[in-house]
Design brief:
339 residues, alpha/beta, eight-stranded mixed β-sheet, four-stranded antiparallel β-sheet, 12 strands
Length: 339
């Protein structure tokens, strides 16, 4: 079963492999991913669409679509138990109470035919069956107040379609935090919101984290959000982790060409107006038709013959900094990034 989780780590994902059965064959959406989250820490998982970020989080929550999605290997240690092997009943005790998730699009995650109060109250009924209706209503009101929803008593009676996108996302956060989880997984929770509302939601999550001491996994393709919110960052590409470092180190000295490409494509204040931003050429390869060797080699400006023949493993190159690239030293020396 592997060793037990260390006490200074809340979540320890080891060599996670998640597959999907498709008509074209078995697709490895997550291929040997490892990372850990400490108490009160925020870990960012970043990468383009289709890199395996969301599938990783759904694996931790055991919410993969059935019967096609399967955890095919590895372990997910949380509070001393492996979530990949515990029974569905035991997982239901963990999900929502100890680990909660906020999804990308609140309109699809909230039930359109139930009032907000009903959906929030459901969480308390499920995990605290001894609570009476008055206590449930009080607790629901308190959660709506905590996430900064104006006129919370009225909102309890409303349906999701009567709320703006920002308010719906706050309701989602209220539902996710109702049981005071130890770990919150936020899967692109601000993607559909405009930038002022996005900033409010990020500030809200930071203040709630300070207050409750929970850990957060923040999944996004937005490096600006990562810089604002995260302590450590995992960069994923085509189902694998290609770089892992503290947020400061990653922005100061990105060592993987993919990370470097992501960072150089961010608009900066010193960029001349109407100037074309650098972009990473090509597309993420299909998981059913991966290139041999390194998965990034067909888009990489540094690729050599070795990169086409061999697949680099994730190696530690400095304290707390891991990278999966044969040529990281050349990248480190060739183009320092000024931040």
């Amino acid at each position: 079963m592997g060793e037990m989780i260390m006490s200074d780590v809340l979540l320890d994902v080891k060599n996670l492999v998640t597959t999907f059965d498709t008509e074209a064959g078995v697709l490895r959406a997550v291929d040997g991913v490892s990372f850990s989250v400490k108490p009160e820490q925020t870990l960012g998982i970043v990468g383009e669409s289709g890199c395996g970020k969301s599938v990783t989080s759904l694996s931790v929550m055991r919410l993969l679509p059935k019967p096609s999605g399967n955890i095919a290997g590895g372990a997910i240690w949380f509070n001393g138990q492996d979530l990949s092997t515990i029974s569905p009943e035991a997982m239901r005790q963990v999900r929502g109470k100890q680990i909660s998730m906020i999804f990308q699009e609140p309109m699809t995650a909230l039930n359109p035919v139930h009032r907000v109060g009903q959906q929030l109250g459901e969480i308390f009924k499920l995990h605290f069956p001894q609570m009476d209706p008055k206590k449930i209503r009080d607790a629901s009101l308190e959660m709506l107040e905590k996430v900064g929803i104006p006129d919370p008593q009225q909102r309890l009676l409303e349906y999701p379609h009567q709320l703006s996108g920002g308010l719906r996302q706050r309701v989602m956060i209220a539902i996710a935090l109702a049981c005071r989880p130890q770990l919150l997984i936020a899967d692109e929770p601000t993607t559909a919101l405009d930038v002022t509302i996005q900033a409010q939601i990020l500030n809200l999550m930071q203040s709630l984290q300070k207050e409750s001491g929970m850990s957060i996994i923040f999944i996004t393709h937005d490096l600006g959000v990562i810089a604002e919110l995260c302590d450590d960052v995992v960069v994923m590409y085509a189902g694998k982790v290609v770089e892992h470092a503290s947020v400061y180190e990653l922005f100061r000295a990105p060592l993987h060409p993919y990370t470097h490409g992501l960072l150089t494509s961010i608009p900066r204040l010193e960029t001349p107006p109407k100037h074309t931003l650098p972009a990473i050429e090509g597309m993420v390869p299909s998981l059913l038709n991966l290139p041999s060797g390194c998965r990034f080699q067909n888009r990489c400006p540094h690729a050599q013959e070795r990169c086409q023949a061999e697949s680099p493993s994730l190696e530690s190159v400095a304290e707390g900094h891991e990278v999966s690239c044969f040529r990281w030293k050349e990248i480190q020396n060739s183009r320092p990034l000024n931040n």
